[in-house]
Structures are given as C-alpha cells and as structure tokens.
Amino acid sequence: MTNIRSQWPAAQHLQEAATEIREAAADLPGLLPPLADWLDKTAVDMAYLVPIKRDNIAYLPWQIAARVAHGVLGLPNADSCLTCHTYPDEGQEPSA
Question: Model's pTM, two decimal places?
Fold first, then answer.
C-alpha cells in the first residue's frame, strides 16, 4: 500500500503508530503490515471529521484505531487524547 498521509492533526498518532509498526515489522510478513495500512487508511479517511463528531457512525472504528495507536506508541488513555479527539464546539476535554 502507498503510505498516503493525512494533513489533519487528529491523524498524527495513528500515522506515527503505523510508521513504528512498519519499522518494527520490516522483515515480518503477516498481521503487522496490514495493521499499519489500516491505521493509515483510517487516518486518511476519517481524521477530517470523525474525531469531532461522536454521533458519527464511524466514531467507534476511529476510537478503536486511536486506542490501537496509543498502545503501539505507549501513550496514555486514547479516549481523552486531545490530539485524537477534538471538540472545538465544546471547548472541553472529552469524557472517557
């Protein structure tokens, strides 16, 4: 897969995790490269809208991708990450 990258800030952690996975699994076929592709595709397809629309049908897949990315990167709780989830109209942190 071509590593297309999103310019939306919400995509940052998903794309960083995809890069780490590819680097760690450079010589390993199987599950890891498709996981990296999925994180990149999710970032490109959803980062422009889903992180700010909790009622969007695609929010759950976004939430799962953010949790995976945070696990790969060793970051704290993805559900309260202001990079992965932005709520400009509320001006507050998302609730877990």
Answer: 0.79
